[in-house]
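Researcher: I'd like a candidate sequence for this fold, 346 residues long. If you have to choose between options at a position, lean toward the conservative one.
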């Protein structure tokens, strides 16, 4: 059983899309920082499969990716005995609240979302309404559980700000029903991992070049190969300098994230200024982190029935919590809630 929600503990919510494997950027920039939250927050970690539908998916691949992502969560240290781990589509209140909140989101706000503009450019053949209203579903994901904090990166700050605006607008009309979430930005430990071939861009699981990204499930030899091919420069100095030495800085950042060492220690360790050694040692440090994760993942995927049982239990508990929010929201809006009150126990 996951830890029960407690008034003494604030609620933290985070999620990722099951659109292919995750990179070490996702690991060092997000998931690795979720794990310690479990000691201090009432935590919920969701696989947001409904969000994935804004881009056409192969149904068989999507089913597999959903389970794989949940297994990666747990293999990386997310503990279903401490946190609710579940699949978004198994909790129908997500879509239900998203519709209600869409009536509180303004057209102009959605038009300003930079991620919509970026994705509309990349998927010009399928600029669907879901792609446009995606941030409202994200708002529902967060507000449904009364999340106090949401771990966010730079690319999600705008969406969280919209979530806050929608919640404030709702509360101004109907009272303090929705918790106003705050961004949780780690002061240390969250690495900004860049593309190995184009280090001016962040590492992305959708990058076209295989050598651009290191996946969490890549084997040791593949990880080493990708780091050996990483772009550096001709300056012959190992320094943190994002402007002049983006590639070298990226390798140093990854080494620090994988070893837990500080920048000063990295510069001392690599004072030899040998790029080849930097690449190999960074690969070795990453493999030292990924090895146990890959082994845990294999064990979880070897018993899909047990994995699905864990996710089903997580969804049941999440749905019970979500129903309490839906009762409050529907009640203040004037929608019938008598039967729902009984199911939610409120």
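Model: Candidate sequence:
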């Amino acid at each position: 059983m996951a830890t029960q929600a407690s008034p003494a503990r604030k609620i933290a919510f985070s999620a990722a899309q099951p659109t292919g494997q995750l990179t070490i950027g996702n690991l060092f920039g997000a998931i690795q920082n979720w794990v310690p939250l479990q000691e201090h927050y009432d935590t919920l970690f969701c696989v947001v499969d409904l969000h994935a539908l804004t881009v056409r998916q192969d149904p068989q691949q999507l089913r597999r990716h959903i389970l794989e992502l949940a297994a990666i969560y747990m293999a990386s240290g997310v503990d279903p005995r401490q946190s609710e781990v579940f699949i978004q589509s198994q909790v129908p209140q997500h879509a239900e609240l998203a519709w209600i909140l869409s009536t509180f989101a303004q057209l102009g706000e959605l038009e300003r979302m930079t991620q919509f503009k970026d994705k509309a450019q990349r998927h010009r053949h399928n600029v669907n309404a879901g792609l446009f209203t995606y941030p409202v579903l994200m708002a529902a994901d967060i507000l449904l559980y009364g999340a106090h904090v949401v771990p966010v990166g730079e690319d999600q700050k705008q969406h969280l700000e919209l979530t806050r605006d929608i919640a404030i607008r709702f509360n101004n009309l109907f009272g303090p029903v929705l918790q106003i979430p705050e961004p949780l930005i780690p002061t240390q430990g969250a690495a900004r991992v860049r593309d190995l071939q184009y280090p001016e861009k962040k590492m992305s699981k959708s990058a076209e070049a295989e050598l651009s990204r290191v996946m969490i499930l890549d084997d040791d030899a593949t990880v080493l190969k990708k780091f050996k091919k990483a772009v550096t420069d001709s300056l012959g100095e190992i320094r943190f300098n994002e402007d002049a030495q983006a590639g070298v800085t990226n390798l140093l950042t990854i080494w620090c994230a994988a070893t837990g060492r500080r920048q000063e220690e990295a510069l001392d360790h690599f004072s030899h200024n040998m790029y080849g050694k930097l690449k190999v040692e960074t690969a070795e440090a990453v493999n030292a982190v990924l090895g146990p994760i890959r082994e845990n993942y294999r064990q979880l995927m070897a018993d899909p029935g047990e994995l699905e049982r864990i996710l089903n239990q997580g969804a049941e508990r999440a749905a019970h919590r979500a129903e309490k929010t839906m009762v409050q929201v529907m009640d203040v809006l004037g929608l019938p809630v008598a039967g729902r009150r009984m199911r939610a126990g409120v």
